[in-house]
Amino acid sequence: MITYIGTPQLETDRLLLEKFELGDAQKVFDHWISDERVTDNRVSAAHTAVSQTVERVADIVSQYEKEDFCYWAVKVKDSGELIGEIDLYDFDEATGNCKVSYSLGYRWWNQGYGTEALRAVIDFGFRHMNLHKIAAAHNTDNPASGRIMSKAGMMQEGIVRDMIRNSKGQYKDCAIYGILEGEYFSRGDEFYVGTKVY
Questions:
Q1: What is the assigned CATH class of domain 10-197?
Q2: Is the terminal CB of the chain with fewer CB neighbours within 10 Å at N or C?
Q3: Among residues 29, 130, 125, which one has the least CA distance to residue 70?
């Protein structure tokens, strides 16, 4: 049985994961959602006007009252800089399984932030939500995302051909990754980032 507790603040060594606020829209637009280097790895197209981002952030904020809504803004703890987003979604009550997705602004790629955020959310899901499995997928032409998943303890389970169609009409094969609760805890502190939950 999944235990839903909404979107609490999570803290790691370098990051704060917390709820979005309406005033974050400009930074979301500037830092990743208008950047095709980032959005080429997402299903939805890059935003071309900040009004699109305002609408999207408002939709996210409006859902925080739901206990089964887990959607974090990723911020660098020292500077408060908003650098990305990460969420748990598609919860299946019958299995206790769900999915995770994330996006990080290009300026913050290859600095370990994606791995740190993903490890924090995986830890939260298993320790506090009683999840059985967390799955993720990445376009096969974006292997860097697969490295993040591997470093967070996830295992590649296969490749689904033409799994998504991006905003440019291109079909993309996706590599599927997953991690089981039992696997996570059997590895001791190997992937634990000392996540604090508030």
A1: alpha beta
A2: N
A3: 125
41: its two tokens: 């790895």
109: buried, middle or exposed (CB in 10 Å: 19+, 13-18, 0-12)?
middle
List per-residue pLDDT tens for the chain, 198 residues long: 999 999 999 999 999 999 999 999 999 999 999 998 888 777 788 899 999 999 999 999 999 999 999 999 999 999 999 999 999 999 999 999 999 999 999 999 999 999 999 999 999 999 999 999 999 999 999 999 999 999 999 999 999 999 988 878 889 999 999 999 999 999 877 777 778 888
Cβ neighbours, 10 Å, residue 1: 6
Q: What residue ranges do the domains of the chain occupy? A: 10-197
> DSSP secondary structure string, 63-88?
TTTSTT-EEEEEEETTT--EEEEEEE
| The residue type at 83 | I
| Full DSSP string of 97-116 | EEEEEEEE-GGGTTSSHHHH
